[in-house]
Amino acid sequence: MMHSLLQRQIRKLMLSEDAVPVDLASWQAFLSAVDRTYGQFDQDRDLLELSLDLTSREMRQLYDEVERHNEQLETEVAARTAELEVANARDRQRMDELENIVQARTVEIRHAALHDKLTGLPNRSMFYDRLHHVIQRRQRIPDLHFAVLFIDFDRFKAINDSLGHAAGDKLLRTIAQRLHESLRASDTICSSKETGFLAARLGGDEFCILLEDLKDDADAIAVSDRLLEDLSRPYVLDERSVNSSASIGIARSNVGYKSAEDMIRDADIAMYRAKHLGRGRVVVFDQTMHGTVMRKIDIESDIKTAVERGQFYLVFQPIVSLVTGRAVALETLCRWEHPIYGDVSPEEFIPLAEELGIIDSIGNWVLDTAIAQFAEWQRTWCRDRLSFLTVNVSPAQLTGAELATRVAGLVSKHDLDPASLVLEITETTLTRNAEEALAAIQAVRARGVRVFLDDFGSGYSSLGILHEFPLDGIKLDRAFLESASSTRRVAACIHSVVTLTRTLRMALIAEGVESYEQVALLQSLGCDDGQGFLFSRPMRAEDVAAGLESIASESRLLDASSEVGPARPTGGVDLTRQPSSEAGVNRPRPIGISKDRPAIQYKC
């Protein structure tokens, strides 16, 4: 049995018991192998110890290196941390400064969004918002009184155009300052000192004022009167004194407004009514004004398509010879039959058409329709009865050779003698653009069409116009006849015009003849032709033939021995009538065409 010590050694050598030799030689060999094994173990242990010793030194060196590196890093981190703390402090200071700038800029933007940059007054947005809140307050407090004043400076555009935009800006700032001063002096009308008033600039020269917590609705008029007085004081602009006034419209809370837009709209309507009545005054809104404005809006919308819808029609008023008493020509007048409002006056729709830029299309339709109608009459019944037809021309049509080309085309299209067509042009049309008007007149007359000056004497440059423009005749403004019978000076002016036209060999037609006294005066002064309600009102095309027959059948030359008789109810004029002695003129005598008074030739 193997000794236990030997067994432990065998297991230590990781040998099995079967591997233990049984003879001496084998055992010696085995022990030698064991010795070698132990020797190798010792050698390996020595190498391992040496290696561990070397590794320990390297590890210590590496550890020392790591320690030094860590100390260096800590130093750098501490320095960088200090730098960052300084930078953070600087950044915090910058952030505080930026925050202050942002807050200040926010205040500026907020102020700019709610105030007018030029005057510093609240703007439209702020005014609407404030008014909206006041309207809501009144719904909770029915006894609350307030008003909106809409103010427009009457001559701002003229001042701005003549003195320049810098002067216009200064004027607006001065107006804003006066508004504040005037309103502060009137704050006793308010029952609450905290609300009082809010003055705002809506744009241009339009300002709005909200008067809150009034003691009475009528107090708004008192404030407006004070504003008118303060705003009418002279303004000094660039060492130049400028005088003007303002027009103010008032909308009051007793109407029971539900929205700010409606209240400002009505105040605006009242302001335009003040301008229409003569400016420099105050008008309080009432519901009839709203109907007028709605009519204007409807008309403005419908006039753009009125030609296409066939709503325009022509009427013709006779021009009567004061020598023979017979109609010698017709004036063409345009009328508009609105589907809702009926006949709309030319005084209403002509300026609107010019403002909207559609007067040219209406004028072209009038020319085409009138020429076609007169050409038809000339072919059928009036060739030997009517000498010419007049058609009014607007400033928009008076553009160089375009009008002449258009008229010549229409005359050729309808086979009408150009000499039987007369274009009427007003003084304001000629003076608006003299060079262009002169070119247009010359081009028209070169085509054989004549040109008359309408409303002669209504402006301030009539004689200059006769000198500068090649005209074939003039129509004396009706204002002369309205005062001629009672003013010797006016009668002398008419006589001078008659003499002037005969000298220049121009035709002369007196407009606005409405009485027998006027006929007698014109005859005594030598005026050959007249036009007015005394002879006939404007007639539709289908009534012209019968109307002219009526004039011809009732007209006779003046008889110096005839007496003044009762007024005649018929539509024609009895030229045998004489004016009464109270008219201030001599009794007329029959006037004919003589050699020393060249006749005005009318060609058909």
What attributes does this structure have?
single chain, 604 residues, alpha/beta, Alpha-Beta Plaits, TIM Barrel, 3 domains, eight-stranded mixed beta barrel, five-stranded mixed beta sheet, 18 helices, 17 strands, disordered C terminus
Descriptive account of the structure:
51% of the residues lie in helices and 15% in strands. It is an alpha/beta fold. The protein has three domains: 4-111; 124-285, Reverse transcriptase/Diguanylate cyclase domain (Alpha-Beta Plaits, 2-Layer Sandwich), CATH 3.30.70.270; 309-555, TIM Barrel. Strand 9 and strand 10 form a beta hairpin. Helix 4 packs antiparallel against helix 5 and helix 5 (165-185) crosses helix 6 (219-231). The longest helix has 91 residues, at 24-114. The model is unreliable at 188-195 and 556-604 (pLDDT under 50).
Stretches with pLDDT under 50, minimum 5 residues: 188-195, 556-604
- Mean of pLDDT: 82
- What is the CATH H-level superfamily of the largest domain? EAL domain
Q: How many strands, what sense, and barrel or not for the largest sheet?
A: 8 strands, mixed, barrel
Structural class: alpha/beta
Query: Per DSSP, what share of the residues sits in E-state strands of 2 or more residues?
Result: 15-25%
What's the shape?
A: elongated
The CATH topology assignment of the largest domain is TIM Barrel
Q: How far is it from the N-terminal to the C-terminal residue, by CA?
A: 171 Å
